[in-house]
């Protein structure tokens, strides 16, 4: 059976799985990215992990290649550049170094772009020519498909939607020092910051008055909203308003048929989807109204990041 | 000799020319769009005008087809929809009706998208795979090319960049009733509105204190800036700041290699290019800095709108 190794490099974990042609990860594992500050040792760990996974599958498993998704990755250069959440600094020639160790087709791409390819191959964007995947995790990523193709950009850095600033340079500071960048509002971290904002703005009682910022976790905010905590509910409404406003604006750019939300914050279900949809519909231009879908990713159940990374290679074998 | 009829439908004038394979308009003319509120009469006028132009050329002139650029046009539907500056209201099936009268290949496209095709075929974007043409006339239009292809969007309304709102819904009202839309700031009309804003904000003397808004023309503002009028200079600085900020944000979307500015406001040369470049460079993310060009359209000398419209057909004949 043919498989592709799908690798998702994140700030905390590096996840690896062997993925079949249906996008299913047959076996997978992870290790802590920060345990490998030396790039060579990291790549050796990748190599040995793939071998271990392969040994866990049947004898006739044939590895077609390696697809990697990572933050701040350039598909055109095969590098990771100045990723604020990763241990390696500056411009990292990841693909070139990996190919020295693994003699197989290998591709690297921005994690959100990989997710968009995954959505097209294995998820709910099958047959769509124009759509955008928005990843809402620690940060905010974008994978843009238009005319049936993934948009790379001039040197592979298209889709950095989390750094789009809708506040004329006068908003919250992001991790990259950009004022007003979307990811300072719409992400797991952004939601936590919005809890602070709401605690400051309103007087209502809330469990969050007894929890320090550093002890705050995204899932707790969803739970609090379920239980009627007014600060949590206001925080989701505000987050959805900004996301809905942003998606309405993105529509005027490439006019997608659908937006797919993926990642931690997308897991808050109606708390994020309902206000986002409401405000997106409010702010959409008339020529777009009723034509843009807001959907959960079809890969939420599957191991989305691993499947997406594997799609980089599987997309070469389609038909 | 083979030619294509290039037609630019504008709120004031409809321009028609016969364009050769080099993008040069050999003969051209115009008539007033508003003189033809009846669509059938308008299309007959188009038809007769093309015949007249053809009679002005040599006998061996062979008309390959008709390309049309218009505001709010959908290339996928062949319609013009709710164009606020045109006489025909609602959804206008222009292409279908035209084909009843003219038995030739015909295409319709948003005027800014047509300009982008023109820039790729006849202008300074030859060989570029990723660029954006921004048209700065009465409004603000966008034509986006990515992966070497024009981006149409789900039903042909991509590139409505003038309606992107960078003020979180709290800015000037555009003609379409959108708050904060870019075209309320960066366009011939936007510049005039900014003159009012500057007259209101500052106390300096200015020739514009003696001119009513309705008597104000864009070229006068450029002339005033040349002569040192402080309100005109501040207005250009402000316009360039918002445009530069917008282009920096657009870069995070499809990462173009270059932006081309076209249209009336682009004719203000350094008064618009210098502040736009300065602020674009200020606001660009580090991964993009030094990689994005800001250029005047290579079609400014040619009859840009006519050439762009003709490119719709000529692009079918390139190898």
From TrEMBL, chains A, B:
<dbReference type="Pfam" id="PF00480">
    <property type="entry name" value="ROK"/>
</dbReference>
<dbReference type="InterPro" id="IPR000600">
    <property type="entry name" value="ROK"/>
</dbReference>
<comment type="similarity">
    <text>Belongs to the ROK (NagC/XylR) family.</text>
</comment>
<dbReference type="InterPro" id="IPR049874">
    <property type="entry name" value="ROK_cs"/>
</dbReference>
<dbReference type="InterPro" id="IPR043129">
    <property type="entry name" value="ATPase_NBD"/>
</dbReference>
<protein>
    <submittedName>
        <fullName>ROK family protein</fullName>
    </submittedName>
</protein>
């Amino acid at each position: 059976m043919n498989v592709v190794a799908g690798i998702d490099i994140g700030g905390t974990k590096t996840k690896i799985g062997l993925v079949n042609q249906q996008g299913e990860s047959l076996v997978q594992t992870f290790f802590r990215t920060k345990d490998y500050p030396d790039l060579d040792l990291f790549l050796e760990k990748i190599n040995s992990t793939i071998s271990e996974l392969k040994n866990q599958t049947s004898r006739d498993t044939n590895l077609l290649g390696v697809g990697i998704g990572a933050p701040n990755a350039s598909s055109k250069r095969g590098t990771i550049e100045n990723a604020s959440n990763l241990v390696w600094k500056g411009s990292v020639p990841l693909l070139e170094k990996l190919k020295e160790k693994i003699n197989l087709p290998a591709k690297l791409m921005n994690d959100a772009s990989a997710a968009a390819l995954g959505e097209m191959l294995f998820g709910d964007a099958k047959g769509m020519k124009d759509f955008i995947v928005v990843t809402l995790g620690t940060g905010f990523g974008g994978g843009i498909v238009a005319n049936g193709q993934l948009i790379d950009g001039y040197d592979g850095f298209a889709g950095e939607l989390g750094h789009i600033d809708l506040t004329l340079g006068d908003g919250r500071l992001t991790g990259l020092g950009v004022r007003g960048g979307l990811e300072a509002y719409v992400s797991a971290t952004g939601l936590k910051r919005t809890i602070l904002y709401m605690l400051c703005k309103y007087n209502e009682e809330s469990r969050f008055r007894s929890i320090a910022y550093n002890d705050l976790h995204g899932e707790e905010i969803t739970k609090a909203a379920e239980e009627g905590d007014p600060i949590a509910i206001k925080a989701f409404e505000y987050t959805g308003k900004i996301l809905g406003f942003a998606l309405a604006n993105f529509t005027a750019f490439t006019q997608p048929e659908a937006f797919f939300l993926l990642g931690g914050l997308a897991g808050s279900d109606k708390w994020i989807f309902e206000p986002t949809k409401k405000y997106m519909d409010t702010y959409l231009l008339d020529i777009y109204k009723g034509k843009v879908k807001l959907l959960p990713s079809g890969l939420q159940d599957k191991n989305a990041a691993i499947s997406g990374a594997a799609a980089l290679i599987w997309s070469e074998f389609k038909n």
